[in-house]
Amino acid sequence: MKIKFQILLPLLLALAATFAASARDRVSILGDSYSTFKGFVQPESNACWYFPEPDTTKTDVRSVKQTWWHQLIKEKGWLLEKNNSFSGATVCTTGYSGKDFSDRAFTTRVLDLGSPDIILILGATNDSWAGAPLGDFKYSDFTEDDLKSFRPALAYLLETAADRYPNAEIYYMVWDKIKPELISSAEEISRHYGIPFLVLKDIDIKGGHPTIKGMRQIASQVASLTDGK
């Protein structure tokens, strides 16, 4: 009997570990440069801002463990499903100098987030910096032209996320230093879809991007937003 138990014990422990892992929430990140780190974004071809050997004139972040999302996932005991972040990406399809950013826009990448239980979306900074069109509030019958402007593009983004990942909890966040009209628009559109919304405040920045301190501040504020998960 003792021998049989000794044989079964490793199997039972393995099954318990498998069950525990499967019970943990899987989180996907949809973001811009603030959420990148080379080697930890998918697809790997996505442009990144943060690297293991960074340009220290631009940032002091040099480890993926210092990113806001890595800290948050570790604190919450979540599992990373996918980080589809792209440096310089806009929510809408209009990028810098009016260029077509359809290949990297949030509205495009929202279709490639794996099978998450939680989706954290942080974006609009590049829409602000690029001077992307604001557009009108619109919540249905989206066209390609609609997606060139921020308001209808964000509505399409959140609606698509909710439809494509019906069992996922979705959270949307912006930085408090972007254009006020983008912040107020994002709040209204998030409210329309019943999606929790957060304005990240007083984030420590270098070169327009979060520092190690700024990353900790983001992780703390997002942790408060997602309390209960």
Brief digest:
The protein is an alpha/beta fold. 36% of the residues lie in helices and 14% in strands. The protein has a 5-stranded parallel β-sheet with strand order 2-1-3-4-5, sandwiched between helices.
Architecture overview:
This protein is 36% helix and 14% strand. It has 229 residues and is α/β, with parallel strands linked by helices. The chain has a five-stranded parallel beta sheet, sandwiched between helices. The protein has a two-stranded antiparallel sheet with strand order 6-7. The longest helix is centred in the first third of the chain and has 22 residues.
Keywords:
36% helix; alpha/beta; 229 residues
